[in-house]
Design brief:
Elements (H helix, E strand, L loop, with lengths): L1 H21 L6 H23 L9 H14 L4 H11 L18 H31 L6 H15 L6 H20 L2 H27 L4 H22 L6 H22 L7 H4 L12 H10 L10 H11 L4 H8 L3 H15 L3 H19 L1
Length: 375
Amino acid sequence: MKERLLYLAYLFTAVAGLLTVVYPYTESKGVVLLAVGFFSSASAVFVGYRLQLGTVRAFLGLAVGNLLSFALSLAPIDTSLKYLATSLGLLVLLLPVERKVEAQKVSREFYRFLPFFFFFYLVGGVMYKGFMEFYGEGAYLLGVEVVFYVLGVLASYVLLKRYTEQALLSLASVFLAVSLLLFHLGGAVFLNASMFSLQLAFGFADFFLLLSLYSLKNPLVAYPVGFSAVCAGILTGYLVSHTRHYGDFFMVFSYFALFVSVLYYFWQRKDKPQDKQEETSHPPEPDVRKTPLDFLRELEKSIPDHRKKLSGRELNVLCMLLEGCTYEVVSERMGISTSSARKYARRGLEKLGLSKEDLCALYSECMQSQSATVK
């Protein structure tokens, strides 16, 4: 089934590229544009699949792609050639994938975060539609706002080396709130400053979104579902933006949606007990060596206090540590900072009541006893 989905992504990407080439020559541009959006949705998921084969550094493609797009828009060449160049960029996706992604089960925690993405990007949909009516006339240089988006992406990559992903969310929320305020003040100066702040906000937000989906290690589930929540939020925001003529309602609704999204995110960040189905999702098989995950699941069950359950990320970090990975390797694989990897390990060890050395020693003893049994 997954192989068929990948072949379908190849086909849809090729169709999206072809439609992009013919777009300047068609009369029904609205229909063609809708078709490009439909077929390129599969391309977006395919990009996510390819991202899973790399590291977080690949997210810098957000910055490179937007800069190239801005440069192309300024190039003194025929418009049809610009669309042709854009379509040629899709050919990169048609190159064969060198290896397959070993998909992991997506935890229920991911689905509980979807409302956050919906509400956060709803504010983006409201703002973008609200801007477009005024920004084109008052922009200092139409398109230069992309530079601020790129700065947000680059800053996200740098910050992630020292801070957790929550720092990206916090900065995205702050710049989005500032953008709302500046937009409300009116005037050409504030309008441009508001757009720049909005682009910064979504530079952080898009990096955070990709990081969240990347960490799930199941691109054919995470990216379609995650992008669907984002697109639903943007579409809803676009529809709500028609109230922009009712200024007070427009502002109150936008701030309320932003507040709800951030509040919901941090509320869901609280550790929740895993359900019984997840606890038994990896039962040890007879006469087969236990994996680090099986070992941790059994160790977790032996803890008297059933309220102290390991979260998905704590399990993943501890599993990789038992496999002999360093914190740097863990951070690269999970798409998080080294400090975040240490934090999840520390929290998991505290719940188990063990030090890292004790945990590794217990696992080593378990493996040795299993080896003796197999012999």
